[in-house]
Design a protein that fits this description.
Strand order of the largest sheet: 1-3-2
CATH topology of the largest domain: Four Helix Bundle (Hemerythrin (Met), subunit A)
Keywords: DNA-binding, Transcription, Transcription regulation
Protein name: DNA-binding GntR family transcriptional regulator
CATH class of the largest domain: Mainly Alpha
GO molecular function: DNA binding; DNA-binding transcription factor activity
Number of strands: 3
Distance between the termini: 46 Å
Structural class: mainly alpha
Strand content: under 5%
Domain HTH gntR-type: 8-75
Radius of gyration: 18 Å
InterPro entries: GntR_C, TF_FadR/GntR_C, Tscrpt_reg_HTH_GntR, WH-like_DNA-bd_sf, WH_DNA-bd_sf
Length: 207
């Protein structure tokens, strides 16, 4: 059965272009995104720009105050600490549920990350990193855990932008995630929990 592909709208294309620039760190936190300048730069109408910015505001990548241009959202070190405070118990639940199980979709995301070309933008690494962790959460089979984790997705992605200065060699990032997936698959639950906790503390602690 052939499933037709849905054409990508100008709004989606612009939102994707801006998303990649934010997640690659090209657009630094606090950078304003005036509608008129974006309209001229990308050759699209201002209503298209306004809708694309609204998409990214909804995702948490941009913030907007009344009568001011949208700005790239900033995640401070205090924000990251609080994010980890909330993520740790969720990831701990995940580790217990998945101990002794192999997560094929997580392995696939890691393989895609490893196969990215050397000059791939950091946003592509962020996308596969998020896909890996999301696959593990989905594998648990708890819709509520999945929803809670999804609420944190935007700040997690923004936090990952900071990690590009920690992981200048992507092979190191790939190896660490390979060790994580292997540890969870081996089990038992206590070992999986320790591996997940160590993984969170390592990268984010240096971010």
């Amino acid at each position: 059965m052939t499933i037709p592909l849905r054409p990508v709208s100008a709004v989606e294309a612009l939102a994707d272009a801006l998303r990649r620039r934010v997640l690659s760190g090209e657009l630094a936190p606090g950078t304003p995104l005036p509608e008129q300048e974006l309209s001229a730069a990308y050759g699209v109408a201002r209503p298209t720009v306004r809708e694309a910015l609204a998409v990214l505001v909804h995702e948490g990548l941009l913030r907007r105050e009344r009568h001011r241009s949208a700005q790239v959202a900033e995640v401070t070190l205090d924000d990251l600490d609080d994010l980890m405070f909330v993520r740790r118990p969720l990831e701990d639940l995940m580790a217990v549920a998945l101990a002794g199980r192999r997560v094929a979709d997580a392995d696939a995301a890691l393989d895609r990350m490893a196969a990215l070309p050397a000059d791939a933008p950091w946003s592509d690494v962020v996308a596969e990193h998020m896909a890996l962790h999301q696959a593990m959460v989905v594998e648990v089979g708890s819709p509520r855990l999945e929803r809670l984790y999804g609420v944190l997705a935007a700040e997690t992605r923004l936090g990952l932008v900071r990690l590009r200065t920690v992981y200048t060699d992507r092979d190191v990032l790939v190896a660490e995630h390979r060790e994580l997936l292997d540890a969870v698959a081996r089990g038992p639950a206590d070992a999986a929990r320790r591996a997940v906790a160590a993984h969170l503390d390592h990268g984010w602690g240096e971010g």
